[in-house]
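quick one before i forget lol
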Amino acid sequence: MKKPFLHNESAADVGMELQQSYDRLLDTTRKWVDIINFDPLPETGMTPKDIVWRKNKSRLYRYVNHKGYKYRTPLLMIYALINKAYILDLRPGMSLVEYLVDQGFDVYLLDWGEFDWEDRDLSFNQIIADYVYRAVYKVCQFSNVNELSILGYCMGGTIATMYAALYSQPQIKNMIYVAAPIDFGDAGLSSIWLKASVFDVDKVTDTFSLIPKDFIDLGLKMLNPVNNFVATYTRLWKSIDEGVSVEAWKALNKWVDDNIHFPGKAYREWVKYLYQDNALVKDEFIIQGRRVVLSNIDASLLVLTGKTDHIVLPQQSTPILDLSSSQDKTSLQYPVGHGGLVFGSRARNEVYPTIAEWLAQRS
Protein backbone atom coordinates (compact mmCIF):
# COMPACT_ATOMS: atom_id res chain seq x y z
CA MET A 1 0.00 0.00 0.00
CA LYS A 2 1.30 3.46 -0.94
CA LYS A 3 2.50 5.52 2.02
CA PRO A 4 1.17 9.07 2.37
CA PHE A 5 3.54 11.81 1.26
CA LEU A 6 3.81 14.16 4.26
CA HIS A 7 6.14 16.92 3.08
CA ASN A 8 4.76 20.28 1.94
CA GLU A 9 1.14 19.24 2.47
CA SER A 10 -1.53 20.73 4.64
CA ALA A 11 -2.94 18.94 7.63
CA ALA A 12 -6.19 18.48 5.72
CA ASP A 13 -4.39 16.85 2.77
CA VAL A 14 -2.44 14.53 5.07
CA GLY A 15 -5.61 13.58 6.89
CA MET A 16 -7.38 12.85 3.60
CA GLU A 17 -4.54 10.58 2.41
CA LEU A 18 -4.48 8.75 5.72
CA GLN A 19 -8.22 8.21 5.54
CA GLN A 20 -7.97 6.95 1.95
CA SER A 21 -5.22 4.54 2.96
CA TYR A 22 -7.27 3.33 5.90
CA ASP A 23 -10.37 2.86 3.74
CA ARG A 24 -8.33 0.93 1.20
CA LEU A 25 -6.91 -1.28 3.95
CA LEU A 26 -10.39 -2.07 5.23
CA ASP A 27 -11.80 -2.70 1.76
CA THR A 28 -8.94 -5.04 0.80
CA THR A 29 -9.21 -6.91 4.09
CA ARG A 30 -12.98 -7.30 3.73
CA LYS A 31 -12.56 -8.76 0.22
CA TRP A 32 -9.76 -11.01 1.54
CA VAL A 33 -11.98 -12.39 4.31
CA ASP A 34 -14.87 -12.92 1.90
CA ILE A 35 -12.72 -14.89 -0.55
CA ILE A 36 -11.27 -17.12 2.16
CA ASN A 37 -14.57 -17.83 3.89
CA PHE A 38 -17.42 -17.41 1.44
CA ASP A 39 -16.32 -17.60 -2.19
CA PRO A 40 -17.52 -20.77 -3.99
CA LEU A 41 -14.79 -23.19 -4.96
CA PRO A 42 -13.66 -22.70 -8.58
CA GLU A 43 -14.11 -25.37 -11.22
CA THR A 44 -11.04 -27.50 -11.84
CA GLY A 45 -10.08 -30.41 -14.09
CA MET A 46 -12.07 -28.96 -16.99
CA THR A 47 -10.26 -30.41 -20.01
CA PRO A 48 -12.85 -32.66 -21.75
CA LYS A 49 -12.28 -36.34 -21.06
CA ASP A 50 -13.81 -39.79 -21.19
CA ILE A 51 -13.58 -42.50 -18.55
CA VAL A 52 -12.24 -45.51 -20.46
CA TRP A 53 -11.61 -47.89 -17.55
CA ARG A 54 -12.48 -48.22 -13.86
CA LYS A 55 -11.22 -50.31 -11.00
CA ASN A 56 -12.87 -49.77 -7.63
CA LYS A 57 -12.51 -46.02 -7.01
CA SER A 58 -9.84 -45.39 -9.65
CA ARG A 59 -10.60 -44.08 -13.11
CA LEU A 60 -8.53 -43.94 -16.26
CA TYR A 61 -9.24 -40.79 -18.25
CA ARG A 62 -8.57 -40.31 -21.92
CA TYR A 63 -8.66 -36.63 -22.88
CA VAL A 64 -10.67 -35.59 -25.89
CA ASN A 65 -8.59 -34.22 -28.74
CA HIS A 66 -10.77 -32.40 -31.25
CA LYS A 67 -7.77 -31.43 -33.38
CA GLY A 68 -6.64 -35.01 -33.93
CA TYR A 69 -3.58 -36.84 -32.67
CA LYS A 70 -0.31 -35.61 -34.10
CA TYR A 71 1.84 -38.18 -32.27
CA ARG A 72 1.16 -41.90 -32.21
CA THR A 73 2.73 -42.77 -28.83
CA PRO A 74 0.19 -42.16 -26.03
CA LEU A 75 1.12 -40.56 -22.71
CA LEU A 76 -0.08 -41.90 -19.36
CA MET A 77 0.11 -39.51 -16.39
CA ILE A 78 0.37 -40.90 -12.86
CA TYR A 79 0.11 -38.81 -9.72
CA ALA A 80 0.54 -39.36 -5.98
CA LEU A 81 -1.76 -41.28 -3.65
CA ILE A 82 -2.29 -38.40 -1.22
CA ASN A 83 -3.59 -35.53 -3.38
CA LYS A 84 -6.09 -35.06 -6.20
CA ALA A 85 -4.66 -35.50 -9.69
CA TYR A 86 -6.38 -32.41 -11.08
CA ILE A 87 -3.26 -30.39 -10.23
CA LEU A 88 -2.18 -31.57 -13.69
CA ASP A 89 -5.36 -30.07 -15.15
CA LEU A 90 -6.01 -27.23 -12.73
CA ARG A 91 -7.77 -24.60 -14.83
CA PRO A 92 -7.92 -23.46 -18.47
CA GLY A 93 -4.67 -21.79 -19.41
CA MET A 94 -2.89 -23.37 -16.46
CA SER A 95 -3.04 -27.08 -17.25
CA LEU A 96 -0.30 -29.43 -18.37
CA VAL A 97 -2.98 -31.80 -19.65
CA GLU A 98 -4.66 -29.10 -21.71
CA TYR A 99 -1.32 -27.94 -23.14
CA LEU A 100 -0.25 -31.41 -24.25
CA VAL A 101 -3.66 -32.20 -25.73
CA ASP A 102 -3.49 -28.95 -27.74
CA GLN A 103 -0.04 -29.99 -28.98
CA GLY A 104 -1.53 -33.15 -30.47
CA PHE A 105 -0.67 -35.78 -27.86
CA ASP A 106 -2.92 -38.69 -26.89
CA VAL A 107 -3.13 -38.05 -23.13
CA TYR A 108 -4.39 -40.37 -20.37
CA LEU A 109 -4.45 -39.87 -16.60
CA LEU A 110 -4.86 -42.47 -13.85
CA ASP A 111 -7.00 -40.93 -11.09
CA TRP A 112 -6.83 -42.93 -7.85
CA GLY A 113 -10.12 -41.62 -6.52
CA GLU A 114 -10.67 -41.10 -2.78
CA PHE A 115 -9.50 -43.91 -0.49
CA ASP A 116 -11.70 -44.81 2.46
CA TRP A 117 -11.80 -47.35 5.29
CA GLU A 118 -12.26 -50.35 3.00
CA ASP A 119 -8.99 -49.38 1.23
CA ARG A 120 -6.82 -49.45 4.37
CA ASP A 121 -5.09 -52.70 3.32
CA LEU A 122 -4.21 -51.52 -0.18
CA SER A 123 -0.49 -52.14 -0.70
CA PHE A 124 2.06 -51.32 -3.37
CA ASN A 125 1.67 -54.91 -4.59
CA GLN A 126 -1.89 -54.10 -5.64
CA ILE A 127 -1.15 -50.54 -6.72
CA ILE A 128 1.48 -51.71 -9.21
CA ALA A 129 0.13 -55.10 -10.31
CA ASP A 130 -3.61 -54.47 -10.24
CA TYR A 131 -3.91 -50.79 -11.07
CA VAL A 132 -0.92 -49.43 -12.99
CA TYR A 133 -0.34 -52.68 -14.90
CA ARG A 134 -3.95 -52.80 -16.07
CA ALA A 135 -4.09 -49.08 -16.81
CA VAL A 136 -1.04 -49.38 -19.06
CA TYR A 137 -2.65 -52.21 -21.01
CA LYS A 138 -5.87 -50.24 -21.39
CA VAL A 139 -3.95 -47.23 -22.71
CA CYS A 140 -2.28 -49.37 -25.37
CA GLN A 141 -5.54 -51.12 -26.18
CA PHE A 142 -7.52 -47.92 -26.72
CA SER A 143 -4.70 -46.23 -28.66
CA ASN A 144 -3.98 -49.42 -30.64
CA VAL A 145 -0.23 -49.40 -29.94
CA ASN A 146 2.28 -51.62 -28.13
CA GLU A 147 4.33 -48.87 -26.49
CA LEU A 148 3.66 -45.72 -24.49
CA SER A 149 5.18 -42.83 -22.57
CA ILE A 150 4.64 -42.32 -18.83
CA LEU A 151 4.80 -39.07 -16.85
CA GLY A 152 5.05 -39.42 -13.09
CA TYR A 153 4.65 -36.40 -10.83
CA CYS A 154 5.85 -36.61 -7.21
CA MET A 155 5.00 -40.04 -5.73
CA GLY A 156 3.50 -40.89 -9.11
CA GLY A 157 7.03 -40.96 -10.50
CA THR A 158 8.09 -43.42 -7.81
CA ILE A 159 5.11 -45.63 -8.61
CA ALA A 160 5.86 -45.41 -12.34
CA THR A 161 9.46 -46.42 -11.64
CA MET A 162 8.36 -49.51 -9.72
CA TYR A 163 6.14 -50.52 -12.61
CA ALA A 164 8.73 -49.81 -15.32
CA ALA A 165 11.40 -51.83 -13.51
CA LEU A 166 9.13 -54.88 -13.32
CA TYR A 167 7.29 -55.01 -16.63
CA SER A 168 8.85 -54.90 -20.08
CA GLN A 169 5.63 -55.17 -22.08
CA PRO A 170 3.98 -53.04 -23.30
CA GLN A 171 7.22 -51.20 -23.92
CA ILE A 172 7.73 -47.93 -22.09
CA LYS A 173 9.32 -45.71 -24.69
CA ASN A 174 9.70 -42.53 -22.64
CA MET A 175 9.66 -41.73 -18.92
CA ILE A 176 9.17 -38.20 -17.61
CA TYR A 177 9.94 -37.56 -13.94
CA VAL A 178 8.48 -34.38 -12.44
CA ALA A 179 9.74 -33.82 -8.88
CA ALA A 180 9.72 -37.59 -8.36
CA PRO A 181 11.56 -39.13 -5.36
CA ILE A 182 13.75 -42.13 -6.16
CA ASP A 183 16.59 -41.88 -3.64
CA PHE A 184 15.36 -41.32 -0.07
CA GLY A 185 18.80 -41.21 1.53
CA ASP A 186 18.66 -37.42 1.90
CA ALA A 187 15.10 -36.13 1.85
CA GLY A 188 15.76 -33.05 3.95
CA LEU A 189 13.52 -32.56 6.96
CA SER A 190 11.49 -35.62 6.00
CA SER A 191 14.55 -37.83 6.53
CA ILE A 192 15.03 -36.35 10.00
CA TRP A 193 11.40 -36.62 11.05
CA LEU A 194 10.80 -40.09 9.61
CA LYS A 195 13.99 -41.91 10.59
CA ALA A 196 13.31 -45.23 12.29
CA SER A 197 14.83 -44.21 15.65
CA VAL A 198 12.30 -41.41 16.18
CA PHE A 199 9.26 -42.29 14.05
CA ASP A 200 7.45 -45.57 14.77
CA VAL A 201 5.58 -46.09 11.52
CA ASP A 202 4.12 -49.39 12.76
CA LYS A 203 2.55 -47.69 15.75
CA VAL A 204 1.13 -44.91 13.60
CA THR A 205 -0.29 -47.34 11.05
CA ASP A 206 -1.69 -49.72 13.66
CA THR A 207 -3.36 -46.78 15.40
CA PHE A 208 -5.04 -45.28 12.34
CA SER A 209 -5.23 -48.20 9.83
CA LEU A 210 -6.34 -45.60 7.26
CA ILE A 211 -3.97 -42.63 7.61
CA PRO A 212 -6.14 -39.48 7.89
CA LYS A 213 -5.71 -36.87 5.19
CA ASP A 214 -5.29 -34.14 7.83
CA PHE A 215 -2.37 -36.06 9.37
CA ILE A 216 -0.57 -36.18 6.02
CA ASP A 217 -1.49 -32.60 5.11
CA LEU A 218 -0.17 -31.15 8.37
CA GLY A 219 3.10 -33.06 8.03
CA LEU A 220 3.68 -31.73 4.51
CA LYS A 221 2.78 -28.16 5.43
CA MET A 222 5.11 -28.21 8.44
CA LEU A 223 8.02 -28.74 6.04
CA ASN A 224 7.59 -25.04 5.19
CA PRO A 225 5.18 -23.62 7.78
CA VAL A 226 5.70 -19.90 7.16
CA ASN A 227 4.88 -20.22 3.48
CA ASN A 228 1.99 -22.64 3.97
CA PHE A 229 0.29 -21.04 6.94
CA VAL A 230 1.10 -17.35 6.48
CA ALA A 231 2.65 -16.35 3.15
CA THR A 232 -0.02 -17.96 0.98
CA TYR A 233 -2.65 -15.70 2.59
CA THR A 234 -0.51 -12.59 2.51
CA ARG A 235 0.01 -13.19 -1.22
CA LEU A 236 -3.76 -13.28 -1.64
CA TRP A 237 -4.15 -9.99 0.29
CA LYS A 238 -1.46 -8.33 -1.81
CA SER A 239 -3.08 -9.51 -5.06
CA ILE A 240 -6.43 -8.08 -4.00
CA ASP A 241 -4.84 -4.79 -2.96
CA GLU A 242 -3.02 -4.48 -6.28
CA GLY A 243 -6.04 -5.42 -8.36
CA VAL A 244 -4.48 -8.65 -9.65
CA SER A 245 -6.76 -11.56 -10.56
CA VAL A 246 -7.06 -14.09 -7.74
CA GLU A 247 -8.67 -16.89 -9.74
CA ALA A 248 -5.41 -18.80 -10.02
CA TRP A 249 -4.86 -18.46 -6.26
CA LYS A 250 -8.36 -19.77 -5.56
CA ALA A 251 -7.87 -22.80 -7.83
CA LEU A 252 -4.52 -23.71 -6.31
CA ASN A 253 -5.74 -23.16 -2.76
CA LYS A 254 -8.69 -25.45 -3.45
CA TRP A 255 -6.30 -28.19 -4.56
CA VAL A 256 -3.94 -27.68 -1.59
CA ASP A 257 -6.80 -28.29 0.84
CA ASP A 258 -8.42 -31.08 -1.19
CA ASN A 259 -6.51 -34.08 0.16
CA ILE A 260 -7.30 -37.79 0.45
CA HIS A 261 -6.63 -40.48 3.02
CA PHE A 262 -3.55 -42.71 2.61
CA PRO A 263 -4.13 -46.50 2.71
CA GLY A 264 -2.39 -47.69 5.86
CA LYS A 265 -0.56 -50.66 4.37
CA ALA A 266 0.88 -48.57 1.53
CA TYR A 267 1.80 -45.83 4.02
CA ARG A 268 3.70 -48.35 6.16
CA GLU A 269 5.63 -49.55 3.10
CA TRP A 270 6.26 -46.01 1.88
CA VAL A 271 7.81 -44.85 5.15
CA LYS A 272 9.52 -48.06 6.29
CA TYR A 273 10.97 -49.34 3.04
CA LEU A 274 11.63 -46.06 1.25
CA TYR A 275 12.26 -43.26 3.77
CA GLN A 276 13.79 -45.49 6.43
CA ASP A 277 15.46 -48.28 4.41
CA ASN A 278 15.94 -46.51 1.05
CA ALA A 279 15.14 -49.86 -0.54
CA LEU A 280 14.35 -48.62 -4.05
CA VAL A 281 17.88 -47.49 -4.97
CA LYS A 282 19.29 -50.64 -3.36
CA ASP A 283 17.11 -52.86 -5.58
CA GLU A 284 15.55 -54.25 -2.41
CA PHE A 285 11.95 -53.10 -2.77
CA ILE A 286 9.70 -56.13 -3.33
CA ILE A 287 6.52 -56.27 -5.41
CA GLN A 288 4.70 -59.62 -5.42
CA GLY A 289 7.89 -61.46 -4.54
CA ARG A 290 9.97 -59.73 -7.23
CA ARG A 291 12.77 -57.25 -6.61
CA VAL A 292 12.36 -53.86 -8.25
CA VAL A 293 15.65 -53.54 -10.18
CA LEU A 294 16.10 -50.03 -11.54
CA SER A 295 18.67 -51.07 -14.15
CA ASN A 296 15.80 -52.82 -15.98
CA ILE A 297 14.55 -49.39 -17.05
CA ASP A 298 15.88 -48.49 -20.50
CA ALA A 299 13.36 -45.90 -21.67
CA SER A 300 14.38 -42.39 -22.66
CA LEU A 301 14.39 -40.28 -19.49
CA LEU A 302 13.48 -36.66 -18.83
CA VAL A 303 14.05 -35.65 -15.19
CA LEU A 304 12.66 -32.29 -14.07
CA THR A 305 13.43 -30.86 -10.63
CA GLY A 306 12.77 -27.66 -8.71
CA LYS A 307 15.76 -25.93 -7.16
CA THR A 308 13.73 -24.75 -4.15
CA ASP A 309 11.58 -27.86 -3.82
CA HIS A 310 11.38 -28.73 -0.10
CA ILE A 311 9.07 -31.75 -0.54
CA VAL A 312 11.18 -33.67 -3.08
CA LEU A 313 14.76 -32.42 -3.09
CA PRO A 314 16.48 -32.38 -6.50
CA GLN A 315 19.03 -34.98 -5.40
CA GLN A 316 16.17 -37.41 -4.74
CA SER A 317 15.17 -37.45 -8.42
CA THR A 318 18.42 -37.39 -10.37
CA PRO A 319 19.88 -40.78 -9.26
CA ILE A 320 17.56 -42.55 -11.72
CA LEU A 321 19.80 -41.18 -14.48
CA ASP A 322 22.66 -43.41 -13.30
CA LEU A 323 20.66 -46.30 -11.86
CA SER A 324 18.71 -46.97 -15.05
CA SER A 325 20.11 -48.42 -18.27
CA SER A 326 18.81 -45.58 -20.41
CA GLN A 327 21.08 -44.24 -23.14
CA ASP A 328 18.93 -41.16 -23.70
CA LYS A 329 18.88 -39.05 -20.54
CA THR A 330 18.03 -35.41 -19.95
CA SER A 331 17.95 -33.58 -16.62
CA LEU A 332 16.68 -30.02 -16.18
CA GLN A 333 16.30 -27.90 -13.06
CA TYR A 334 14.10 -24.83 -12.68
CA PRO A 335 14.21 -22.10 -9.99
CA VAL A 336 10.85 -23.15 -8.53
CA GLY A 337 9.40 -25.24 -5.73
CA HIS A 338 7.44 -28.47 -5.86
CA GLY A 339 4.27 -27.05 -7.38
CA GLY A 340 6.08 -24.59 -9.62
CA LEU A 341 6.93 -27.36 -12.08
CA VAL A 342 3.27 -27.82 -13.03
CA PHE A 343 1.63 -24.53 -11.97
CA GLY A 344 2.53 -20.87 -12.46
CA SER A 345 4.03 -18.70 -15.18
CA ARG A 346 7.33 -20.57 -15.37
CA ALA A 347 5.57 -23.90 -15.68
CA ARG A 348 3.29 -22.58 -18.42
CA ASN A 349 6.00 -20.71 -20.33
CA GLU A 350 8.98 -23.04 -19.86
CA VAL A 351 8.17 -26.46 -18.37
CA TYR A 352 5.12 -27.28 -20.49
CA PRO A 353 6.89 -26.45 -23.80
CA THR A 354 9.99 -28.39 -22.71
CA ILE A 355 7.95 -31.52 -21.99
CA ALA A 356 6.04 -31.20 -25.26
CA GLU A 357 9.17 -30.66 -27.36
CA TRP A 358 11.05 -33.52 -25.67
CA LEU A 359 8.10 -35.89 -26.16
CA ALA A 360 7.51 -34.80 -29.74
CA GLN A 361 11.03 -35.81 -30.73
CA ARG A 362 10.46 -39.28 -29.23
CA SER A 363 6.82 -40.02 -30.07
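fyi Residues 42 and 251 are 6 Å apart (CA to CA).
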